Amino acid sequence: MTAEPVEQRCHWPMPPMDGYTVDDLFTLPDLPPHTELIDGSLVFVSPQRDFHTIAIDLLVNGLRRTLPPDLKVRREMTVVLDSRNGFEPDICVLRADAVKGRSQTRFEAADVLLAVEVVSPDSEARDRDTKPFKYAAAGIPHFWLVEMAGETDHPVVQVYERGGATGTYALTGIHHEHVKLTAPYDIDIDLTAIDEL
Predict the structure, then answer these.
(1) CA-CA distance, 142 to 55, in Å (whole number)?
(2) Tell me, what's the pLDDT at 1?
(3) What region, left, alpha or beta, does residue 128 occupy, with left being phi > 0 and alpha being psi -120 to 50 degrees?
(4) Which residues, at least 6 apart from 32, have a Cβ–Cβ distance to it below 8 Å?
(5) For residues 118 and 52, is the Cβ–Cβ distance under 8 A?
(6) 15, 65 in Cβ contact below 8 A?
(7) d(Cα 138, Cα 132) in Å, to the nearest integer?
(8) Does the structure show a pLDDT above 60 at 57?
(9) Which of 2, 20, 36, 82 has its CA 20 to 30 A from that of 13?
């Protein structure tokens, strides 16, 4: 006697008429890891390339190396921008007092000084257009966009700072081999060290 195959179906939740809220993002059962909420819609993240992982590792290590004691670095944690937007930046630098405990699942945009997005093929438009606009509108003062470039697939870091008068980001530099900055704190990262990871 052989067992008959069991038909498996995905059950997709029906979105509410006005879209999802951040509360839904944290209470809906069985959402895939790294689900984001953008303008009330759930966005699922595709599996990532090796570049994405090692670029995050390189930057997290570099950011932590000179981190002042009143700041913390976190990777892939939800940042609540408003009731209809909960993004998961690849990296964020935030105020240390925003970290309340090991079971914490989110941070507020007001606590974030820097959001970093490493561009992936499935998220190019979100990372280049939607997220910077929303991060700036939420008052996050610094944003980095990281892309794979060149024949050696090294990271290129585009650094943006939020203008107080405009409330939007302005490009302050493009870094190919080395990120050396004084804002939001003294940062010194050798991007070529990605070859060692």
Answers:
(1) 18
(2) 54
(3) alpha
(4) 44, 45
(5) yes
(6) no
(7) 10
(8) yes
(9) 82
Q: What is the pLDDT of residue 9?
A: 66
Question: How many residues does this entry show for the chain?
Answer: 197
Closest CA to 175 of 195, 192, 197, 162: 192
User: Is a pLDDT exceeding 60 seen at residue 54?
Assistant: yes
For the cut 80, the answer to whether the pLDDT of residue 150 exceeds it is: no
Question: How many angstroms from the chain centroid is the CA of residue 35?
Answer: 12
pTM of this structure:
0.91
* Residue 25 and residue 78 in contact, taking contact as beta carbons nearer than 8 Å: yes
CA distance linking residue 153 with residue 43, whole number of Å: 27
CA–centroid distance for 154 within its chain: 19
d(CA 118, CA 156): 10
Give residue 161's identity as a one-letter amino acid code: E
CA distance 190 to 169: 24
Give residue 10's pLDDT band: very low, low, confident or very high (50, 70, 90).
low
Calpha distance 105→26 (Å, rounded): 8
Q: Whole-angstrom Cα distance, residue 90 to residue 60?
A: 10
Q: Kindly report, residue by residue over 98-137, the tens digit of the pLDDT.
A: 999 999 999 999 999 999 999 999 899 999 999 999 999 9
